[in-house]
Amino acid sequence: MNEVLSSELFEAFASASDNIYIYVSDMKTGVTRWSKEAVDYFGLPSEYIEDTTTMWVEHIHPEDRSIFIEDISKVLNGTSRKHNCQYRARNRYGDYNWVECKGSVIYGEDGEPDLFAGLMTRLDNRNKYDPITHMLTGYELMREDFNDAGALMNVGIDNFRKINSQYGLSYGNRVLVYLAECLKAHANGALVYRFQGDEFLIYGKGMNAEQFTFIFEKVKQECLTPIKEEHLVGFSITGSIVEFGADEGTVKVLAKSELCFNYAKENRGSFVTVYSADIEKSVNRKKLISESLLESIKEDFKGFRLVYQPIIANTGDSVVGCEALLRWKSDREDIGNCYPDEFISILESNGGMKDVGYFVMREAIRQASIWQKNFKEFNVSFNVSYVQLEDAEFVPDIVRTIEKYGANPQRIIVELTESILNVDTVKVKKSFELLRKHGILIALDDFGTGNSSFWMLHNIDVDVLKLDQSFIRGLEGTIGIDYAIVKSIGIMCDHIGCKTVAEGVETKEIWTMLSEFGFTGLQGYLFSKPIEVADFEEFLLEYNMGKNCS
Ligand code: C2E
Ligand code: CA
Ligand code: CA
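Above: inputs. Below: predicted complex with calcium ion.
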């Protein structure tokens, strides 16, 4: 092997720059030596490699391979002395970065090609320091080997996009600088990295979750009331902490950190969450459920069905209608039981809610048309989220479905659940108007929990108000605030001519109280749990024959 490959000269050049990697090939033996930095960064098998071209082609982005092969072939077959091309090469994290690869053939005294020496320059423009906050860049953290035990904290600004769009980019930058400086001031020796967008990573060798929680709380306070910088409005932050043992490895620690940070953002923004195996389990379960839900949708809503819970007149002598409630059973045994409180929010975040919403609507209306043949006055409610009402096709499809099955629109009730925040109120209002125009009824669900229940009551015509179960449960025992609220809502609805349904009625005492307050409909386990179609029909027959629970 040519002695240049093992010379000090090679070593000296190899460590000359962070962004440049060198390689020298012995053209006679075919052995190439790569700099240690190149081995680390690209994750090469070793410094000395026999068939470098085959190995390196694997690292090149499939779309760019032909450019490289064409150019290097000329060098190898002696038609060119120089190699010069740009392409994307994969590093050891699996990311592709643009590199510029330049090399020259060096001839020996015998006139034959002796060495092929080259430089690989990374063109990804990654600096050591972030130009805005002057903190180390996330890339620098990737270079840490995580050999010693310690902790890593991820901190992000809540609603940073909104801050930028509301106050402008330069204001957004000042917020970033402010947070970076707060983190640095409290870091207690840990290193602060600007990771990506509004996220910072704080890496502390030998530190633990307790110390980082303390730092987070301090920084959080200074962000909520930014005293050190004038004209900066307070903002909140969310954080996650991962503790790691010695030799856990960069990739593993960063993966845990990302998982925990996403969990923190979704579940309890504005706090700090410490990574645990339970969090990982819950994230994995969610992922599994999400995949399985999407499969079910693809297979024509396999596993989805509706169950029905009766709504009883306050007198207790008739079933005035029912609420359709969604159920889902996965094929996968490891999922087990999964109820709407768990899967609805997953459907909302994985984009499946729109399709499932159509399924629920069609199924509920189809069933309503069957029951309304025998019981003309029978109401069927189904649940709809505001996101569905933003879809311009949804309400026209309700109207078409009602027509198709010949159901009575004045006995179809759309129940609206969560708050109206973050939705396009103009589109939603249009949908309301269209519903109204066709005589379809609107119920406000879970009244008293959302942020805009009174706003809704004030701005749209609501036919039915469904008081949240938590108030009904609060009626038990001593007469307190819930008693006053429930009583006043009963009076208010009576006054504005809006029907009222109380959910979660579990005892006879509560039923009596609600009747006194003027609630028109009662729904709860006292009468029946949500049940299958066949059971519901049996319930209807029995109830109407006077076999009620009184
Ligand atoms: P919700 O609309 O408030 O539905 C009432 C929930 O209360 C149902 O839970 C019902 O089983 C439960 N419930 C009724 N009576 C009692 C009682 O006396 N005691 C107790 N402890 N609970 C009672 P479920 O079926 O698990 O549904 C939970 C939530 O999931 C629903 O709350 C609704 O927000 C959502 N959901 C269900 N089906 C659909 C759907 O088709 N579309 C949408 N967007 N959301 C749905
Ligand atoms: Ca409901
Ligand atoms: Ca409800």
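DSSP finds 20 helices and 20 strands in the chain.
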